[in-house]
């Protein structure tokens, strides 16, 4: 038997595209954060398009029928709160949509650093002809912090480009199919200095928040470049600024920040060896359609009482089943 669920689409003023496909399978209500408490009563599910919204905890007392929340994001740290964590409501995410685009973005950042492309563009803006010698990436080492699907896609992409890849995660092992060796994030300061590139692709959890702090940054080799496409909260930002000023590492490419947009007064804007992008590493042409397609797949399963994909372990804060 197929039911017609009632779904609230939580958006930030711009609803998702192509929702006509969804409307064939559900009764849709649209709500901004302010409107969610009025729209959520009687709803079976919430499609969180505005994944940075903090409206769910406020609307939670009005959710009298809710059994499923789907996030249009791979990270769900901004959505989980105590009442949701302790409830039977199922939470799913958009794992799989962003893996390969983010891997390609990271490779682009590695090449930008190695070939000094950011300096080339700055010199072009000044009409300044300045010959320089650049680096190879073949044979360089990269530590990928985060061994989920995004981290694995990055590992495969960098390996194909000739880098030697190691992982860092919750459990140490030596036989991982994508990383080979995986080291413990609890001992990051002991081995971070061995690597030319350190890529952060872990979710934000109580265990990873503030993972890259002054102690870890001081252990970096002066040649190391830090790339963060995970969550801004993984890095203690003032510690990173001081480490860059002190020469503890050679540069940083940051796509995520603890406050977004990055405030204009942040010293990171003015640092020559820092690359800043506005949380866009996974956003490629057609990505919004892919997010809607994934939600539709889960919605159809939900309507017939089938098994949903990408179920988040609400205690850990990420999907624990194999991709």
UniProtKB/TrEMBL annotation:
Domain (D-isomer specific 2-hydroxyacid dehydrogenase NAD-binding) ranges: 107-281
Domain D-isomer specific 2-hydroxyacid dehydrogenase catalytic as annotated: residue spans: 15-312
Keyword tRNA-binding: no
Residues annotated as signal peptide: none
Keyword tags: NAD, Oxidoreductase
Transmembrane residue ranges: none
Similarity comment: family membership: Belongs to the D-isomer specific 2-hydroxyacid dehydrogenase family.
UniProt name for this protein: D-2-hydroxyacid dehydrogenase
Species of provenance: Saccharopolyspora griseoalba
Species lineage: Bacteria, Bacillati, Actinomycetota, Actinomycetes, Pseudonocardiales
């Amino acid at each position: 038997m197929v039911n017609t669920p009632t779904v609230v689409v939580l958006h930030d003023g711009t609803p998702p595209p192509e929702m006509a496909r969804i409307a064939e399978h559900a009764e849709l209500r649209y709500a901004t954060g302010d409107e969610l408490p009025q729209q959520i009563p009687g709803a079976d599910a919430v499609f969180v398009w505005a994944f940075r919204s903090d409206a769910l905890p406020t609307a939670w007392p009005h959710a009298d029928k809710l059994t499923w929340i789907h996030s249009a994001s791979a990270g769900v740290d901004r959505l989980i709160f105590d009442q949701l964590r302790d409830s039977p409501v199922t939470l799913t995410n958009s794992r799989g949509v962003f893996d390969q685009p983010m891997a390609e973005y990271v490779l682009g950042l590695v090449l930008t650093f190695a070939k000094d492309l950011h300096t080339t563009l700055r010199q072009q803006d000044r009409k300044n002809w300045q010959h320089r010698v650049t680096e190879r990436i073949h044979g360089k080492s990269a530590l990928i912090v985060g061994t989920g699907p995004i981290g694995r896609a990055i590992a495969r992409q960098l390996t194909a480009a000739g880098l030697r890849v190691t992982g860092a995660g919750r459990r140490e092992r030596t036989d991982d199919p994508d990383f080979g060796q995986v080291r413990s994030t609890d001992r990051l300061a002991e081995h971070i200095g061995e690597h030319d590139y350190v890529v952060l692709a872990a979710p934000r959890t109580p265990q990873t928040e503030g993972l890259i702090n002054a102690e870890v940054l001081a252990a970096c080799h002066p040649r190391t470049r830090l790339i963060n496409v995970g969550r801004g909260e993984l890095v203690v930002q003032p510690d990173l600024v001081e480490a860059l000023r002190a020469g503890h590492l050679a540069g940083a490419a940051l796509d995520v920040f603890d406050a977004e947009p990055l405030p204009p007064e942040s010293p990171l804007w003015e640092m020559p060896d820092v690359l800043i992008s506005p949380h866009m590493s996974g956003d490629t042409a057609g990505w919004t359609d892919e997010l809607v397609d994934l939600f539709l797949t889960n919605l159809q399963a939900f309507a017939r009482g089938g098994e949903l994909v990408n179920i988040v372990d609400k205690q850990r804060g990420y999907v624990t089943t194999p991709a």
